[in-house]
Amino acid sequence: MAFDLGHQSDNDRLIHELRNKINKFEIILQAYFELMQDKGISEEMLNAKIDEILAREVKGEYGGRRKKCPKCGKPVQESYSTPLRGRCVMCGIEVMFYPFEAKEEPEAPAERDPLDDLGF
């Protein structure tokens, strides 16, 4: 099976262009956020507006970020089908992934006994 190397380089170029655009948008959004804070708009106000918009059932391609569940501490992944949200598979609560919250560093998996979660 032969690969079309010309096609691959076009894809690489497009990926590079998309990454550059995303980087620019991240800088612009950060600037907007800081200007809003300077004008007295708090992070809580921004998060409330995000919640309001999400209540309108916004759909799209999102997901992939991870953080600890605030209730049980287990890892939760942002949903790919519902923006800025995830559900803990252990305790079932919905977890929000707000855009300007501090990013958590991934932890190295700790060695543990797999029977610990069985309640014995």
Structural features, described:
This protein has a domain of 49 residues. The relative contact order is 0.10. The protein is built from two helices and four strands. It is of the alpha+beta class.
Give a concise summary.
The protein contains two helices and four strands, in the order H-H-E-E-E-E. With 120 residues, it is α+β, with helices and mostly antiparallel strands.
Strand content: 5-15%
Helix content class: 25-40%
Uncertain runs are none
* SS class: alpha+beta
User: Strands of the largest sheet, in order across it?
Assistant: 1-2
Report Rg.
Answer: 19 Å
Number of helical segments with 4 or more residues: 2
Overall mean pLDDT: 79
Termini separation comes to 54 Å
User: Describe the biggest sheet?
Assistant: 2 strands, antiparallel
Q: N-to-C SSE series?
A: HHEEEE
Shape summary = extended
DSSP strand count: 4
